[in-house]
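#structure-requests
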Amino acid sequence: MALPHSKAGFDIAAYMAWEETQEERHEFLNGEVFAMSGGTDAHYTIGLNLAASLKAALRKGPCRAFIAGMKIEIKAADAVLYPDVFVTCDPRDRAESANLAKSHPRFVAEVLSSSTGAYDRGRKFELYQSIPELQEYLLIEQDRQHADLFRKNPEGLWVLHPLAPKDVIQLASLDLTLALADLYEDVTFDTGNEAVSL
């Protein structure tokens, strides 16, 4: 994420109209826009693998998976974000008014990079927590097989469930399981001396 650009009187509606005319993607927070940087081969491959698995598992049901280019509008936080992958099961997100951005995701995933990892774990997670419907938040590392799943418990507290290479991701919010290793299909890790492909 790059340095912010501030525009006087810039609200979410103005941002949405402006963003549709931009070649690059920008996130919005409290009247400021932040240019988004591009990702690596591993980043996009992991995101695509997750989205493809979710789409296959959710086929013909009420839930829909989205990848990269679809925005999430968080009215309570005056923010619009671009998650790497998310799922919404809310009929309000199928309305014509939700054509450019969804507002009620049940599950969100971010693929971590060295430049965005702290933001995804910190401020961005804080913003996502403003979404009442959100039940799980998955952070996937791109340079090794590891992920952290945060799940909201009945008391409203977010509980960490770390995942190692041979683990299965249990997404209670969607009533499905995914093998963590499957998210790394076709991903090549640079080990310093040689690349290892999965």
